[in-house]
Amino acid sequence: MKKAIVIGSRESKLAVIQSQMVISYLEEKRPDLELKLLTMKTTGDKILDQTLDKIGGKGLFVKELDKALLDKKSDVSVHSLKDMPMQIPKELPIIGFSKREDPRDVLILPKGRKQLDFKDPIGCSSRRRMLQLKELFPKAQFQSIRGNVLTRLEKLDHGKYGALILAAAGMKRLGLEERISRYFTIEEILPAPGQGILALQGREGEDYSYLDDFLDQESAYAAIAERAFVKELDGGCSSPTAAYAQVTGDRIFLTGLYYNEESKKYYKGSMEDKVENAKILGIRLAECLGGKKDGHR
């Protein structure tokens, strides 16, 4: 009799595609397993008329999935790492991370439009993006937008926004790469911590060795450094932060951005270290930028 493994996922099309990536891998590598997908609508998916910082932050995207794990209705949850809160329950650890998809942010224009028109607001889901976009587009106006990628695209094409800023990873996984009008470089817009990486979460003490070959060590080092940077700054939805780490051989290079709410300035800098010091590197860069009096770019 095959061992049953239930994969928990948000019910959006993108979340299901991402979970199916894990299922497809296991179907090929582990035919001895019986695989099932359990989808659910999270609190963060239901409340779309308020920004995340006003309704409880990123934890609203994982609460129902966490409960399913604790109740043993599911065995593994698949998340976009950038949507996961910094505090992870000890009993529900992150098992590991997927190979990283394109980490960049992208510009999406309404169907048929070739140029950005500043008379309409740019739909943008995070202050991290807005702060950096103001440097690129001083004339632009921004308006918060919630909902899954397909919902946002529908609002864009119906004339509610002049453009959207989204993650390249989500557009590519949805097969919507042709909608991308411009890729922003990492230097132009530093991504959200973990952008492009999937996090797999399970129960403490259980054997998840069947996922070992799916998991990516370079992504793990990058995720650890980026999340340590944000956690040290106590960053989240209400405190704009950004971080991106690159691994080359046994070295890791981390760039971080921190916005100080009091001084209304942002601070950006980089450091590098050995990969085994990824967490320490994130903390050191956070201490450096968080303690600065005068910003630099």
UniProtKB/TrEMBL annotation:
Q: Function of this protein?
A: Tetrapolymerization of the monopyrrole PBG into the hydroxymethylbilane pre-uroporphyrinogen in several discrete steps.
The record, for NCBIfam families, names: hemC
Instruction: Return the protein name.
Output: Porphobilinogen deaminase
**What sequence ranges are listed for the domain Porphobilinogen deaminase N-terminal?**
5-206
Q: Which UniProt keywords apply?
A: Porphyrin biosynthesis, Transferase
A biological process term (GO) from this entry: protoporphyrinogen IX biosynthetic process
Cite the annotated pathway: Porphyrin-containing compound metabolism; protoporphyrin-IX biosynthesis; coproporphyrinogen-III from 5-aminolevulinate: step 2/4
Q: How is the cofactor bound?
A: Binds 1 dipyrromethane group covalently.
> Sorted alphabetically, which InterPro entries does this protein's record hold?
HemC, Porphobilin_deaminase_N, Porphobilinogen_deaminase_C, Porphobilinogen_deaminase_C_sf
Q: Self-association or partners: how does it assemble?
A: Monomer.
UniProt cofactor(s): dipyrromethane
Ranges for the Porphobilinogen deaminase C-terminal domain?
221-288
Checking CDD domains in the record gives: PBP2_PBGD_2
Positions carrying S-(dipyrrolylmethanemethyl)cysteine are: 237
Write out the similarity annotation.
Answer: Belongs to the HMBS family.
On the tree of life, the source organism's domain of life is Bacteria
